[in-house]
Each structure stands twice: as C-alpha cells, then as structure tokens.
Amino acid sequence: MGDKMHNSTTHPMTIEAAMRKVRAVEDAWNSRCPKIVARELSHDCVWHIRGQRIEGRSQVVSFLTSKWRTQLHYRHIKELWSFNHNRFSIRIVSEWRTKYNKWFRSTGTENWEFNNNSLLARRIIYTTDTEIDAEKRLFGWPFGRRPDGHPGLQEMNL
Fold first, then answer.
1. Which long-range contacts (CB under 8 A, 24 or more apart) does 77-81 make?
2. CA 41 to CA 58: how far, in whole Å?
3. pTM for this structure?
4. φ and ψ of 114, to 5 deg
5. What are phi and psi of 107, to 5 degrees?
6. Rounded Cα gap, residues 37 and 77, in angstroms
7. What strands lie across the sheet with 103-114, from one edge to the other?
8. CA atoms of 69 and 80, how far apart (whole Å)
9. How far is CA 65 from the centre of its chain?
10. Pick from 39, 111, 109, 99: nearest CA to 74
11. Which element (helix H / strand E) includes 124?
C-alpha cells in the first residue's frame, strides 16, 4: 500500500496504481501476520465487520490474531471492483478450515477509505461463509503470497 494518494486535480490515481495497492494488501493478508497488515493502517482506523466495530491498530491486531487462530490454512484473494480518489470497493474471497477440519469459503466485499497519508482509515466489510468440501478448494498455493500465475477471482468465475 505504499503508493501515495494523489490530488485528483493534479495527479489522479491510475487503475494500475489502485490494482498494485489492492495486491499489496492481499499479500499482507496472506502473510497471516497481523502486524504486517496493521502497518498500512492509520492509528485511529475503524473497521466494521459482522456487526463489530474495531477501532485502532491495536484492536485490529487483536482481532486478526484471534481470527487466524481459528481460521487455519487461510488463503485470500482481493480484487479491485472500483475506486474513486481515496475510496475503493474490493471483492474478496477466502478459503480456510476449522480445527475440526471443516472447510469454508468466505465471499464478500470491502469498502476502503484512505486518509491523506495513504493509510487505510476505514474498512467496511460484508462477508458470507459457506462450508465447502475439501476437494472443492480453489486456493491451494503454498503459505504466503499468491503466486503471480494463479488466477484471480474473475478468471475463476467467483
């Protein structure tokens, strides 16, 4: 998420820069390291997720730490849907399993708002979890960053 937001009248955000920003966030999520994800958040960020309001980096780190203790073998893809200045709409799909070896696919959308320092200030997420058979998994790459050759959500018809 290192690209700076630009003043729309002098240097508008390009589609390429927006896509790089989304991919950088996806890479941070696939690290499954809450501190890496939190690096690009404003200190006073606010997340709205599943009826929960999470405020500030430390609460985000706690939330993600808890999340990844229960969502094992987590893999995640984010795809830019649209953007306008400092607001992005993102499509997301994750696959993960429980400690009871039940697999899930989570699908949804995220709305992002960045502050003037290009840090994520607000994240609003809507997701649905659907149990899937292990054989139906689509995200089987090794732990870490999704390989460049791996299809995105559109190519997989998700």
1. 77/26, 77/139, 77/146, 77/152, 77/153, 77/158, 78/22, 78/23, 78/25, 78/26, 78/29, 78/110, 79/22, 79/152, 79/153, 79/154, 80/15, 80/18, 80/19, 80/22, 81/109
2. 10
3. 0.89
4. -100, 150
5. -125, 150
6. 14
7. 52-55, 41-49, 120-132, 103-114, 87-97, 72-84
8. 27
9. 15
10. 99
11. strand 120-132
pLDDT tens for the 158 residues of the chain, in order: 444 444 443 456 899 999 999 999 999 999 999 999 999 999 999 999 999 999 999 999 999 999 999 999 999 999 999 999 899 999 999 999 999 999 999 999 999 999 999 899 999 999 999 999 999 999 999 999 999 999 999 999 99
Please tell me whether residue 87 adopts helix, strand or coil conformation: strand
Q: What are phi and psi of 28, to 5 degrees?
A: -60, -45
Q: Which residue's entry shows tokens 């200045």?
A: 85
| Tokens read off for 90 | 């993102």
